[in-house]
């Protein structure tokens, strides 16, 4: 298995630290002052109704969206500061989307090696070796020559996870990784994520899988209307929500 790139982050520095984050699209204020953090090695699950700002929050963390104000610190580095080497910070963050975002015209192996060679400057041989180790990790060692169109959704998502892992990220952000999957394919993807969590990967997971949040999450954050309404221990929050909005949401999804 590949070794994580050396990280210079001091122990105790949160992996992600978001302070008073605001983001509007035109007159639509989508994030209305978000404060939260993810510690190193922690798994934080973000839940909440559609349109509450979950994806926007995730995308602000690696500046796929430009925050309007507030602070986003990734391993202590302010990503909004124009002096920050954004590519260097982004290369520490693995991202997995609902729609997989694999390159359709490339084989699985090429999907896993192209950024390793380009961004990590690895030789082809080294990139292939790391890709194979990560395909093994997600249970798809026999698929390196396949094209995405010939894979199931669950397999595509596991390839997307293996691709992200091949870049040796310090943390992984998942945006509804199982929402586009047929129900019978969800379990394999969650299993891979569960293993990653048990290996100590720092993870932020937007999900509707309350079982996963309860079992794997160290913390659950409930968002509604651009604010964090409630956060806490998953078992506590999911079985005994304190706020009316959390109760209303959970009564619909549990
Ligand atoms: P969630 O992931 O919780 O469903 P989103 O963060 O995707 O919520 O969206 C929150 C709100 O922001 C929605 O009203 C959505 O229409 C709006 N929004 C998201 N992205 C954009 C964008 N690029 N341009 C304009 N509005 C957007
Ligand atoms: Mg979303």
UniProtKB/TrEMBL annotation:
GO CC terms, sorted: plasma membrane
Signal sequence range: none
Residues covered by the ABC transporter domain: 16-250
Location(s), subcellular: Cell membrane
Catalytic activity: a polar amino acid(out) + ATP + H2O = a polar amino acid(in) + ADP + phosphate + H(+)
Membrane-topology descriptor: Peripheral membrane protein
Keywords from the named record: Amino-acid transport, ATP-binding, Cell membrane, Membrane, Nucleotide-binding, Transport
Main localization of the protein described in the UniProt heading: membrane
InterPro entries assigned: AAA+_ATPase, ABC_ATPase_HisP-typ, ABC_transporter-like_ATP-bd, ABC_transporter-like_CS, MetN_ABC_transporter-like, P-loop_NTPase
A Pfam family that the UniProt record links to this protein: ABC_tran
GO molecular function: ATP binding; ATP hydrolysis activity; ATPase-coupled polar amino acid-transporter activity
Gene3D superfamilies membership: P-loop containing nucleotide triphosphate hydrolases
Enzyme class: translocase
Family as reported in the entry's similarity comment: Belongs to the ABC transporter superfamily.
Stored PANTHER family: AMINO ACID IMPORT ATP-BINDING PROTEIN, GLUTAMATE_ASPARTATE IMPORT ATP-BINDING PROTEIN GLTL
Entry protein name: ABC-type polar-amino-acid transporter
């Amino acid at each position: 298995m590949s070794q994580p790139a050396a990280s210079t982050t001091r122990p105790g520095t949160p992996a992600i630290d978001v302070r008073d984050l605001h983001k509007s699209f035109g007159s639509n204020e989508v994030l209305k002052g978000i404060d939260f953090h993810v510690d190193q090695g922690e798994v934080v699950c973000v839940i909440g109704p559609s349109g509450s700002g979950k994806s926007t929050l995730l995308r602000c963390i690696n500046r796929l969206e430009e925050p309007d104000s507030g602070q986003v610190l990734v391993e202590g580095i302010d990503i909004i500061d124009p002096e920050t080497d954004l590519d260097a910070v982004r290369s520490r963050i693995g991202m997995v989307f609902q729609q997989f975002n694999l390159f359709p015209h490339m084989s699985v192996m090429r999907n896993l090696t192209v950024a390793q060679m380009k961004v990590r400057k690895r030789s082809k041989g080294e990139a292939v070796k790391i890709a194979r180790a990560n395909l093994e990790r997600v249970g798809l060692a026999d698929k390196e020559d396949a094209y995405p169109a010939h894979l199931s959704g669950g397999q595509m998502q596991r390839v997307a996870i293996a691709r992200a892992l091949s870049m040796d990220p310090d943390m992984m952000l998942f945006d509804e990784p199982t929402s586009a999957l047929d129900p019978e394919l969800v379990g394999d993807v969650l299993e891979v994520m569960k293993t990653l969590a048990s290996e100590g990967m720092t993870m932020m997971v937007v999900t509707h899988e309350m079982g996963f949040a309860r079992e794997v999450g160290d913390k659950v954050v409930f968002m509604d209307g651009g604010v964090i309404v409630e956060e806490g221990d998953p078992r506590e929050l999911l079985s005994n929500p304190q706020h009316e909005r959390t109760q209303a949401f959970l009564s619909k999804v549990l």
